[in-house]
Every structure is written in C-alpha cells, then in structure tokens.
C-alpha cells in the first residue's frame, strides 16, 4: 500500500526524469509536495544571468508539475525553518532530496535533519563522493587513479518515476529577472545534449579550440540538474575516443565534487600546505583590468569579455585567463575564483575551486608551479586564425593573425591600417610576460622555501 503525502525538496536537481529522489518519492507515495526553497544568500551571490537561468528552470519545472495537476511550491528563506514548517503543514514525515556536497549544503541539510527525516539520494553525480575508493578504502587523492576506478565502477540509469498527484500550492513569486541566455527546463537541456551528440566525434580533436563550437556547453545544465550526468554518460556511450573523452570530463566533475566533500576547506585554502604563505600582490587596478578584459593580452581579454557577455568561457581560455591572474599578475586565486563563480552560468563551488587550485598549482593534481601558461603561444596554438579574439574584442577585428595574438609586436603601418592605436583604442600589455613568469616562479619558490624552513 502506498503511503500518503511526502515532500520532494528540489535543489540542484531541477528535473523529473532520471531523478532518484523524485522516483523514490513517487514510487512510495501517492501525493507529493514539490518544494524549492530560495535561499536569499545564494540568490544574491549569483550574477543576473545565473539568477535568470534558475528562475527559468523553476518556471519550467512548475509547468511540468502542472501536468500532474500541481505546482512547484516556492518558498523564500531559511530551509531549516521552512522545510520543517511545510512538513508539519502537509503531514509529511519524510523529505526526499538529492544530496549535495558543498560545506554550505552539508551544514544546511544537517540543520534541517534535526527536525525532519531526510531521505537522501545520489542524483548529482555519476558516482557520489565516497563511492570510488582505493584498495585501502580511502578516496583517491589524485585524478588518474580515481578515473581508473570510476570508469569501471558499476552504475545504471535511475529508475523511472511513478504516478503521483502533486500539491497545487504555488508559494512565493520569484523576483523578476532578465531573459535567460538559453531555453530553460529539462526538455531543452535534453535537446542540447542530443544536438551535441551529433558532433561529439570531433570532441577530442577540437575541444581545446575556443574558436570552434566544439564542446557540449552542458555545464550549466549539469550544475542546475536539468540534466542527469548518468543520462549524459549513457547517451554518449564509450564507442569512440571522443565519447570516452567526454565521459572522462564527467569524471573530473565527480572528482572535484569528491575533493570538496573530503576537504571542505579546499574551497578557499590551498590544498598543498607549502603554498599557504604565497606572497600575493595587492593590486586592485590589476584585478579590475583583468575582470574587465583590458589587460592588453587579446586572448585573456576575449575570455573575460565572453564571461561578461555570455556568463561562459571556453575551458582552454578559463585556464589561460586564470593563469594570467595568478601567475602573471600574482593576484590571489581566491579573488579570481569568486569572480568566476559569481559570473559563470555554470558557477559551481566544487568545480570552480578545484580548477582554480589546479591552475594556481596549489591543488590535488596541481600543474607544477614552474609551468606558466604563455598567453601568446597559447593564443597562437588554440585560436590560430584569431577568430575567437575577433568575436569578443571588436577593436582588434581588423588585425589578422598572427599579429592579433600580440598587437604590441605588430609594426606601426599594420596597426594603423587595422585602425588600432595601442594605449588608446586597445591597451598596451599591462605586464611583460617574461618578467612576470620569473617573478611568479620566484614567489612560488619563496613560499616553498619558507614552508620547508
Ligand atoms: P565539455 O568540454 O563539453 O565537458 C562536458 C562536461 O564535463 C562539462 O559540462 C562539465 O560538467 C564537465 N567538465 C569539463 N571540464 C571540466 C573540468 N576541467 N573540471 C570539472 N568538470 C569538467 N566548470 C563548471 O562546471 N563550473 C565552474 O565553476 C568551473 N570553473 C572553472 C574555472 C577554471 C579556472 C577552469 C580552468 C575550469 C572551470 N570549469 C568549471 C571546468 C570547465 O571549464 C567547464 O566545465 C567547461 O568549460 C564547460 O563547458 P562544456 O560544458 O562545453 O564542457
């Protein structure tokens, strides 16, 4: 016999298909309250594009729930007060959720669980933190052994949902936002997956090229949970190198979820203790130029302007831009991490902190401290015709490759015919890369030396 009413508390799993918490609740109960609690602190910490997406996804979920005769009940405030109150009102003794693993989420759920029973599922990852263990029974510390175990670990798609009636109490209205940058809801996310799968077989060869439309751009859907990572893995399959390459990126996502879960301080503390005393420079003007995309290094500026325009940066350019902040400007990676997290439509604490620490050389799989990305050679290699730069830095549109990668090396005639006056229409490079590289290596060595001594 089915138990009566329960609650599904949606958080970062804004879908009804492939959602283990929703499936279990609808299997075991014949009436469900679908609840979302908007936490004002999280809402304020996101830039408008990500807020618009969240609002759009919630509206799409509400629309789907109308098909069950109900609504998405939205409440605004502290989950520790709201969830028990809704449980009391609806007579639910259990609240179904998909677990989340950031320090904030863990503390929030613990506070709620003091008064209501949370039935928790692992719908956020292919393999949840703690599932992939070494022979010694501990989570692997670095990626490669994690990947070796992850790829052969048993898994399957989540069970389908049952029939259910959904409570029709809509709750609060969300604050108005701008139009989302792309179509919201799980059906649109599934369409994005399918359209990418038509071109996935070029992924390995082209994924590092920001000038091509060569990656899936599913990160935001994975962040909000409009797509289930297991579904992505299932539909991608592993029949070609490119498909395996994409699945491997899903493994990175699980890996960083696990790193943050196991080392909660790593969101703002260097994973490697030897770099905790880095002599970061205080340079507000330098940070502002980086954030505005006016460093004078075209590939960095293109990336930072893509962030402003689209809430997105291509992965290769994220690495180049992050490396520029940390190594060339010697500015604390935490400032860059915060900027990215606020502005990215996929801004995600585990993925962002993990990747920033990787770039800074302070993380689990850290790039060695002496490897400093050269923004000019990276630009030449990965944006060979300068098309990505031209797209986001209009003042350089008339300057062709190879000059566009380093305008300060271009002769006055070529610059003049491209309508460029350095220092006026486009900035001079704000720092000399060769000098900055030496300065960064010396700073890292000093921090290592101090930690040894
Ligand atoms: P694809 O290449 O199509 O990859 C498929 C999926 O795999 C992605 O959607 C993503 O979920 C996952 N993935 C890919 N690369 C990585 C990676 N390096 N680490 C973890 N997961 C990965 N990703 C975020 O989702 N949120 C962030 O806040 C974030 N911040 C980053 C900050 C820096 C400094 C760097 C270098 C990378 C960051 N990434 C972040 C990882 C990566 O850049 C994005 O996931 C990727 O660019 C998203 O584009 P895509 O969906 O087309 O990726």
Characteristics:
6 strands; 48% helix; alpha/beta; binds flavin-adenine dinucleotide; single chain; 6-stranded parallel beta sheet; 453 residues
Write the layout of secondary structure elements.
Blueprint: E1 3-10, H1 20-28, E2 29-38, H2 40-45, H3 48-66, E3 72-76, H4 79-90, E4 94-98, H5 103-113, E5 117-121, H6 143-152, E6 165-166, H7 186-197, H8 203-206, H9 219-224, H10 229-236, H11 241-262, H12 284-292, H13 298-310, H14 315-328, H15 333-343, H16 349-360, H17 375-382, H18 387-392, H19 412-417, H20 433-452
The structure holds flavin-adenine dinucleotide.
Flavin-adenine dinucleotide is lined by residues 207, 215-219, 222-223, 246, 249-250, 252-253, 256, 315, 318-319, 322, 340-341, 344, 346-348, 351-352, 355-356, 359.
Question: How is this structure best summarized?
Answer:
Helix content is 48%, strand content 8%.
Describe the protein in words.
With 453 residues, the chain is an alpha/beta fold. 48% of the residues lie in helices and 8% in strands. The chain contains 20 helices and 6 strands. Strands 1, 2, 3, 4, 5 and 6 form a 6-stranded parallel beta sheet that branches. Helix 5 (103-113) links the parallel strand 4 and strand 5 (117-121). Helix 4 runs parallel beside helix 5. The protein is globular and about 75 Å long. The N and C termini lie far apart (68 Å). The model has no long low-confidence stretch (mean pLDDT 96). The site of flavin-adenine dinucleotide has 29 residues, from helix 9, helix 11, helix 14, helix 15 and helix 16.
């Amino acid at each position: 016999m089915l138990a009566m009413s329960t609650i599904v508390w949606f958080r970062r799993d804004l879908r009804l298909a492939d959602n283990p918490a929703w499936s279990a609740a609808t299997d075991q109960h014949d009436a469900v309250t679908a609840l979302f609690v908007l936490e004002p602190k999280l809402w304020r910490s996101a830039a408008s594009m990500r807020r618009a997406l969240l609002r759009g996804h919630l509206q799409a979920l509400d629309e789907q729930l109308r098909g069950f005769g109900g609504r998405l009940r939205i409440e605004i405030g502290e989950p520790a007060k709201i969830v028990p109150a809704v449980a009391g009102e609806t007579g639910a003794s259990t609240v179904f959720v998909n677990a989340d693993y950031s320090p904030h989420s863990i503390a929030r759920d613990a506070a709620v669980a003091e008064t209501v029973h949370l039935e928790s599922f692992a719908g956020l990852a292919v393999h949840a933190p703690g599932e992939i263990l070494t022979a010694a029974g501990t989570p692997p510390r670095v990626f490669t052994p994690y990947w070796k175990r992850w790829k052969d670990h048993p898994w399957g798609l989540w069970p389908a949902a049952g029939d259910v009636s959904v409570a029709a109490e809509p709750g609060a209205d969300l604050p108005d936002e701008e139009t989302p940058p792309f179509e919201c809801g799980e059906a649109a996310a599934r369409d994005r997956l399918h359209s990418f799968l038509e071109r996935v077989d070029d992924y390995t060869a082209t994924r590092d090229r920001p000038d091509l439309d060569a990656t899936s751009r599913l990160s935001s859907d994975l962040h909000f949970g409009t797509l289930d990572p297991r579904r992505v893995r299932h539909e991608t399959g592993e029949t070609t190198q490119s498909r395996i390459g994409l699945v491997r990126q899903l493994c990175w996502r699980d890996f960083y979820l696990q790193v943050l879960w196991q080392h909660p301080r790593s969101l703002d503390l260097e994973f490697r203790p030897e770099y905790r005393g880095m002599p970061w420079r205080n340079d507000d003007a330098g940070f502002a130029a980086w954030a505005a995309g006016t460093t004078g290094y075209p590939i960095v500026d293109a990336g930072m302007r893509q962030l402003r325009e689209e809430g997105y940066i291509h992965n290769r350019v994220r690495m180049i831009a992050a490396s520029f902040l940390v190594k060339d400007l010697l500015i604390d990676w935490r400032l860059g991490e915060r900027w990215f997290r606020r502005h990215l439509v996929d801004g995600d604490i585990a993925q962002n902190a993990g990747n920033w620490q990787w770039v800074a050389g302070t993380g689990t799989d850290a790039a060695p401290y002496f490897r400093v990305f050269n923004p000019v050679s990276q630009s030449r290699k990965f944006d060979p015709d300068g098309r990505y730069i031209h797209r986001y830095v209009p003042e350089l549109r008339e300057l062709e490759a190879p000059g566009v990668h380093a305008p300060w090396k271009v002769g006055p005639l070529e610059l003049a015919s491209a309508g460029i006056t350095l220092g006026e229409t486009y900035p001079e490079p704000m720092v000399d890369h060769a000098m900055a590289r030496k300065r960064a290596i010396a700073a890292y060595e000093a921090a290592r030396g101090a930690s040894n001594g």
